[in-house]
Design brief:
Blueprint: H1 2-18, E1 32-43, E2 50-63, E3 67-80, E4 85-97, E5 109-121, E6 130-141, E7 144-147, E8 150-165, E9 175-189
């Protein structure tokens, strides 16, 4: 599993790095730190014996030109079949990569790979609370816009989550749950918008002096234009 994740991450980084040639973004997805509050809806594995749950997630990260590293915390409440509720709290790190950031049509699409430590509480099938670990992979979309002078980005994500629960007793087997997670929220940059690039200075225009009538006196000094080129003229271009 770890080798596959490393391969996926390597490919996601290699594709944009090989084709990197685009202008830095000046919208909400520009380079710098950001914060991302989101609602989280978890479609749980049938083996959990709980209903789907609703919660929240909060990310704090740093975005580069085509990738971001993010610290994330998430809490989800799941209703149990006996009328109670189970809680899942996790803290982890995620890598978000936009491998086609140089293409305008798909530059806001990104892939997600994440790892988190999870704390379960009152989960059915377990006699006590315990820590587990999560692996997330998925796809996201973040179109950016401006509202009241502030740069924002809508953040929509779909994740496949593998949750490995350790057994309570040493004789038991680990339990693995495959959940789906939907997230919707905003991403707000914490860095200032960079100034627009300086416009290039206009090129100097070279004006070549001309002598239209060919009398040897330049036009800007010729007071008698139209002299023949074989006539004798003074310094003002007039015939002697």
């Amino acid at each position: 599993m770890k080798a596959r994740i490393a391969l996926i991450v390597g490919l996601m980084l290699a594709i944009p790095a090989a084709a990197y040639d685009f202008e830095p973004r000046r919208d909400a997805l520009r380079k710098g730190f950001y914060v991302a509050p989101m609602l989280s809806y978890q479609l749980v594995d049938d083996q959990r014996a709980v209903d789907d749950g609703l919660g929240y997630a909060l990310g704090l990260g740093y975005r580069g030109d085509f990738a971001a590293v993010e610290l994330k915390t998430e809490a989800v409440s799941l209703d149990t079949t006996d009328g109670g509720s189970a809680e899942l709290h996790n803290v982890g790190v995620s890598l978000l990569v936009a491998p086609l950031a140089m293409l305008p049509l798909v530059r806001d699409v990104h892939f997600i790979v994440g790892y988190a430590w999870n704390q379960r509480r009152d989960h059915p099938g377990f006699s006590e609370d315990d820590e587990t670990y999560l692996i997330d992979t998925g796809l996201g979309y973040m179109p950016s816009f401006e509202l009241f002078g502030y740069d924002l980005a809508v953040r929509v994500e779909y994740l496949y989550r593998l949750d490995t629960q350790q057994p309570v007793s040493s004789e038991g087997e680990p339990a693995e749950f495959s959940d789906m997670v939907l997230r919707v929220g905003l991403q707000l940059p914490l860095s200032k918008r960079p100034p627009p690039p300086d416009e290039p200075a206009p090129a100097a225009v070279q004006v070549t002096p001309t002598d239209s009538d060919g009398d040897g006196v330049l036009d800007d000094q010729d007071q008698c234009p139209g002299s023949s080129d074989d006539s004798n003229v003074d310094a003002q271009g007039c015939a002697l």
